[in-house]
Design brief:
The structure is a homodimer of 138-residue chains. Helix content of chain A is 60%, strand content 3%. Chain A contains 6 helices and 2 strands, in the order ααββαααα. Chain A has helices at residues 4-11, 15-23, 42-56, 61-71, 79-111, 123-129; strands at residues 31-32, 38-39. A two-stranded antiparallel sheet of chain A has the order 1-2. In chain A, a hairpin with a 5-residue loop joins β1 (31-32) and β2 (38-39). In chain A, 30% of the residues are buried. The interface between A and B is large, with 56 and 56 residues. The complex binds zinc ion (4 copies). One zinc ion (ZN) binds next to loops of chain A. The first copy, chain A, binds a DNA duplex (30 and 30 nucleotides) through residues 3-5, 14-17, 19-20, 24, 33-38, 55, 60-61.
Chain lengths: 138, 138
DNA sequence: CTTGAAGCTCTAGTGACTATAGGGATTATC
DNA sequence: GATAATCCCTATAGTCACTAGAGCTTCAAG
């Protein structure tokens, strides 16, 4: 039986975060010691590692909740799980696209000024004042 | 003199957001009509357009506050403004790098399963359970 | 002068935590 | 068995940049 601190050390998830996951329904409410402290077993450790890994990959709490629910039904087809992952991949790709546009614009803006001007002439300030100086939309 | 709604329509910034920017100190507290409604002038319109553009480029409120403060001193050198922009560009590039790693991993995971398995065999679920199946860190 | 749109303030909700306060439990040492 | 250090508990509030709603007042058109 592991304390919440043990679980934390073994997974790298902070103690308050573990309690938060319980509150959000990702972890089952843990058994308690006589003194009301949480006690965990190996299955909880695995569940938490799953959650942690899914979070590291950027999945949100709701998606993880659904994946956990699915994983409780080993014989169902996995189309739903695959769709969740595919949707997330699409969302990540969209974010990348948006950030690349920002990067391009910012790089252009930054390259036009080297800190050697006055604020009045600064290309950074002028670009922010006038989207017309931009190369694209955002 | 423009009402807050006029300002909203001309900049595409929603009315509550304009009030929020005032509260955050990005916009000066507007003059008021006899009936306590906000009234704006051209300079406010320009300020709001600046804020909007900076937000569209991903700068946060604090950075925008600093840029506005700088733009009030036209004769100072622009090194601080340039640094804010350059720092933001670096942050954007870091985000892109992280997202690209996620994308790669997610693409790999998704490509291994086509929805035609059982949950028990699903590569998505198995990958989430075991980071050892991953190609890199995240 | 009436009506409907627009404006006002204040509060709370979003997501995924993190921090703090003010206590109680457990464990190691003496 | 006492004590101290560490751990754990709940509950609340703060983060960021808004957004939504309640309940009220003001404005502009007809
Ligand atoms: Zn400059
Ligand atoms: Zn622009
Ligand atoms: Zn699958
Ligand atoms: Zn992994």
């Amino acid at each position: 039986m592991l304390s919440i601190g043990d679980l934390s050390r073994r997974t790298g998830v902070k103690v308050p975060t573990i309690r938060y996951y319980e509150q959000m329904g990702l972890l089952d409410a843990a058994e308690r010691s006589e003194g009301n402290q949480r006690r965990y077993e190996r299955t909880d450790l695995e569940r938490l590692a799953f959650i942690r890994h899914a979070r590291d990959l950027g999945l949100d709490i709701q998606a993880i909740r659904e994946l956990i629910a699915l994983s409780q039904h080993p014989n169902l087809p996995c189309a739903d799980a695959d769709r969740i992952a595919a949707d997330h991949l699409s969302a990540v790709r969209e974010k990348i696209e948006k950030l690349k546009k920002l990067e391009e614009e910012l790089a252009r803006i930054v390259s036009h000024c080297d800190g050697g001007h006055s604020i009045e002439e600064c290309y950074v300030i002028r670009s922010l004042s006038d989207h017309g100086l931009c190369g694209g939309e955002h």
